[in-house]
Amino acid sequence: MQYKVTYQCGDKVRDAIMTQKELDECRSSYEVIEAVAISGQQTSATDSRSEIQETDGWTEFSYGGKRWSFDSDQLAQWDTELEGFEFLAYHQLAQPTIESVTGFIKRHGY
Predict the structure, then answer these.
(1) 0.70 surpassed by pTM
(2) To the nearest 5 percent, what fractions of the chain are helix, strand and coil?
(3) Distances 18 to 5, 23, 48, 81, 108 between C-alpha atoms, Å
(4) Do the bridges between strand 2-9 and strand 74-79 make them parallel or antiparallel, or are there none, so unpaired?
(5) CA nearest 69: which of 82, 78, 60?
(6) How many angstroms separate the CA atoms of 58 and 36, rounded?
(7) Distance CA 105, CA 42 (A)
(8) pLDDT score, position 39
């Protein structure tokens, strides 16, 4: 099952599509404002591709049990110790999408 989640991250309100596990992790780190179940959609536990479109130009998603974020030229990975995204690489993709960034992650073995 997936959930449409609205949560508070610092001074920003963000929206996301999350699995139950991701929702539980989000609740432990952020203030969840709303979580609504979305029927008829399923995700794999290992290849969840939840997406968040941010107003700051970054897109967040989960893949391979990890949280990722990218913008027009950078890729970042969630660091649990820092409780934030940390720069990982310049992806050099002309028009990055979750699918193309996932391919980049696979090719580079991240």
Answers:
(1) no
(2) 20, 45, 35
(3) 7, 6, 8, 21, 25
(4) unpaired
(5) 60
(6) 23
(7) 22
(8) 55
